[in-house]
Amino acid sequence: MSVPEEKLDANFEPKIVGLMCNWCSYTGADLAGTSRVQYPPNVRIVRVMCTGSVDPMYLVRPLLEGADAVLVGG
Amino acid sequence: MNELNLTGAVMVVGGGISGMQSALDLAEAGYKVYLLEQKPAIGGTMAMLDKTFPTNDCAMCTMSPKLVDVGRHLNVEIITNAEVLGVEGTPGNFKARVLKKARYVDEEKCIACGQCADECPVKVPSEFDGGLGKRKAIYKMYAQATPNAYAIDKNKCLKFKNPKACGKCLKVCEAGAISHDMEDEELELHVGSVILSPGFEPIDPTPYGEYGWGVYPNVITSVQFERMLAASGPYQGHVVRPSDHVEPKKIAFIQCVGSRDVHRGKNYCSAVCCMYATKEAIIAKEHVDNLEATIFYMDVRAYGKDFEKYYDRARQQHGVRYNRSMISSVKELQQSNNLLIRYLNQDGQYQEEEFDMLVLSVGLKPSTSANDLAEAVGVELDNDGFCKCEEFNPGATTKPGVYAGGAFVAPKDIPETVGDASCAAAQAGKVLSDARGSLAQVKEYPSEKDIVNEEPRIGAFICNCGINIGSVVKVPEVVEYVKNIPGVVHSEEFLFTCSQDNVERIKERIKEHNLNRVVVASCTPRTHAPLFMSSIREAGLNPYLYEQANIREHASWVHQDNPKAATEKAKDLVRMSVEKVKLAKPVHTSSFEINRKALVIGGGLSGMTSSLNLAGQGFSVYLLEKEPELGGNALHIKRTIDGSDPQRLIEDLRKQINDNPLVEVLTEAEISDVSGYLGNYKTTIKTSNETKVLEHGVVIAASGAEEAKPTEYYYGENNNVVTQRELEERLASGSLDDVKNVVMIQCVGSRQEGRPYCSRICCTHAIKNALTIKNRNPEANVFVLYRDIRTYGMKEKYYREARENGVIFIRYELEDKPEVSFKDNKLEVKVNDPVLERQLVLDTDLLVLSTGIVPRKDTEKLSRMYKLPLTADGFYNEAHMKLRPVDFAADGLYLCGLAHSPKLINESLSQANAAAIRAVTLLSKDRLESLGIVATVNEKWCKGCGLCVNICPYDARVIDENKDVAVVREVLCQGCGACVAACPSSASQQNGFEKKQILTMIDSAIS
What we know:
The structure holds two protein chains of two kinds.
Chain A lengths: L15 E6 L3 H10 L8 E6 L7 H9 L4 E5 L1
Parallel strand pairs in A: 1-2, 1-3
Chain B lengths: L8 E5 L3 H12 L3 E5 L14 E2 L4 E2 H14 L3 E4 L2 E9 L2 E8 L14 H5 L3 E3 L8 E3 L1 E2 L11 E2 L5 H4 L6 H5 L12 E7 L1 E4 L3 E3 L16 E3 H8 L20 E8 L15 H15 L4 E6 L9 H10 L4 E12 L6 E7 L4 E6 L1 E6 L1 E3 L3 H8 L24 E3 L9 H19 L25 E6 L11 H9 L4 E7 L5 H13 L4 E6 L2 H14 L7 E5 L1 H5 L6 H20 L8 E2 L5 E4 L3 H12 L4 E4 L21 H14 L3 E4 L3 E8 L2 E7 L4 E6 L1 E4 L3 E3 L13 E3 H10 L7 E5 L16 H15 L4 E6 L9 H9 L3 E4 L7 E5 L2 E8 L4 E7 L1 E4 L3 E3 L2 H9 L26 E3 L9 H19 L4 E2 L5 E3 L9 H5 L5 E4 L4 E4 L9 H5 L5 E3 L4 H12 L1
Parallel strand pairs in B: 1-2, 1-13, 2-5, 13-23, 15-21, 16-17, 16-21, 17-18, 24-25, 24-26, 26-27, 29-30, 29-35, 30-31, 35-46, 37-44, 38-39, 38-44, 39-40
Antiparallel strand pairs in B: 3-4, 6-7, 7-12, 8-9, 10-11, 14-22, 18-19, 19-20, 28-47, 32-33, 33-34, 36-45, 41-42, 42-43, 48-51, 49-50
Helix pairs in contact in B: 1-2, 1-10, 1-22, 6-7, 7-8, 10-22, 11-15, 12-13, 15-25, 16-17, 16-22, 18-19, 19-20
């Protein structure tokens, strides 16, 4: 499979949607903050109460509408 | 006021996991709790741990929800930097004098931004990090500290030495929280009962000069290693040598440093070190590729629930090497700072081996404050400095009305600590039950505005958090941006949104602008959403018309070098929250009446104890026993190793039960059918003469376990081959006084394929019987053939006594089990002695098999009826191995005693009381209230397929047979939303997390 050309752009900044479980990975993202861990500002975190509640649509729709990746943390 | 004039408040001394659990149980059961802590934050030792065994759960992750619960509980008042000066009065009415030392930081004003510590010029070794890291003179103990506030170490602060010096912290504290003029205060607390849980301290390894701790840089204690492993610790989770910060390739652990050592250390076993060393070795191997980890030990005491499996995994999967040996010396090699360990191996040979790093598994000793505390309160300590408690009255100290929890009583691990803490709470609750609710506060709110037909009018409040957010995210820019989002009618910035005055201002703005929805952009909703939700409720808005954007932890703090991107991200996060809150609907929790009667299944010591505690706290109990009489397994135990008489205990409990009108005993009873759920169970039972339906609200499963019957070594064929329990009965009947040669074989059927777990009590049981034989007839030979002697904790002294009295212990390996032959009417046991390196042939008059404990057959049946999960070994599976030892995952179901796992009598009694107070936290409520974020069902779309019923882990989903649609039992629903994702026709939604809301947020995130 060929890689789309724009993805090779050195200035490419992916848009990432993060679906994070309230009890673990959302808490982990909080801890990253408290510990002042620095990471790229590309992810937008949506808090869910359990990754068990993640509907397939939550993954497919952002990808169809322009997100470059979806990160599910649970 | 109640008749006896009891005070409905309890003082809990010590804010570790033990004190926290006692406090939460009592507060939930309707008492006011003062939780005292000597340090500036609660959390105790568990907060310092990286992971916990045997699940390798992150300690802080499992503990922090409890920290938040304690911190936010309306009826728990945390008093930090506190010391008890004295306790006067009588049970039910104590007056406690407490010294609250000045913190020099106002807990209410401090927003824990850390600017003060950044500025503070004084660096000192951090006690919390075991001295591996530094802290400042103004400091917060750890990231998640509760109360979440800084404190000044008076002895280190420059300004206290010279008032003109320094004061840098004062200048940078925008919240104005610091004051060097604060003074110590003396408080007087009126409480009905006192619980002491000052915890333990690690033993100082300095006297063990031969290990080189404090001299060789690469020798550290297990506590220091724990901090090294922790991602939030001084080494950020990197396993490196303190001397050169290079990853070690070979690491050694030495066990029993300070424990099991009569001469220089403590004579007891510290009960937790074998397992924590195993855990640390596993975790270290996960951190460092190809790390070799070796544990030098005497006996591996993997005696707790699922511990043996963990030990097996450590050896088999992770390749941790266990080396049974005696350490002779540790020397540092000058060039490499490596450590040369010389030891006597199990064949009796000296050997040397080089390691890059050495971890000392230091034992547990009573906390240094224990003596002063005991004196101030007036309780006695035992010879080892632990709190004296009666064996059959767990948690009760020598002073009536004063109880003890956790490692103050003896060294123990977390689940037992938590169980004992609940037990102490149960004991306190029993004394004070007439005063329950008399001092507990209940929050009251004004009536709620109806906004259902209104267009969204959103107020967005953007927090600077001092400079925590404002120094990176351009807050005014965010405020302007948000104003232009359709639906937002008001936006403003606050320096500290959570300060009392600004919370009031939000309420004013709601009225002023007729807001019907609120967004706060600040820190994490996990800690602050409850505060803001409750505030908007005070202003008449439904609390679920609220969203919080986390622009601190998820923006300013993690993109400090990129203010532009952080600001853009903050805008996105606020916009996403605004879009989500537009779709928010008011949520009304449902509540319902519950049946306040409990059903206790099993009339052994556990079941009887649970029943009596529940009755003592004022609740009616059905106590079910399948045998004709109460007593269970204890009927066969004549004496405990500590010398107490279980038969007298049974008699005493039976009498109390007989005399108590709240306990209805049903013997020869079998459960035939169960229906209903939390709060409203219907259990059908059959007794010898009737069938009866019992209605009850909760269940305590105390259904016990039984001694395993061996299938080997001529058991059942030869009259002189008996189990330990049968031996105990023969000893009691006095029929063994002339027996000459007794051989005991440990681990018969245990710790091997088929029954992989350790039954915990057999070593103690065998030593008890061996001592009895020796005491009666010192001439008798008693041989104990064992794999590891697991006389954990205070039982170690009996192991020593047995050796001193001439009981002979011979170790065998699983691969080389003893062989028993029966020829010419003679029993003979052959065993290979690893020390003598030869086979011993023992003429045996009596062969005693330590066979372990197995679950009862009906455990499985009960498990099916009440949907109680089981472990692979067939015991009940609690909600959480560490922190919820007597709860099942589903509310209203509890467990205790042998049905949980093999244990000694006093441990069962403790769990039985614990299960009772856990049940009381539910039974004491007027009504049970559901969570707000429960699942809902659109009946029009629901096809009744039942996928949600299968997927729900909490038994909160059922099919309404009449309507053929799924319904949610709201009170059981824990708001995970798994059923929503599973629903094929989108008939299910979750309040506050409706699909449309999440999709809107997602759309907004990428727009």
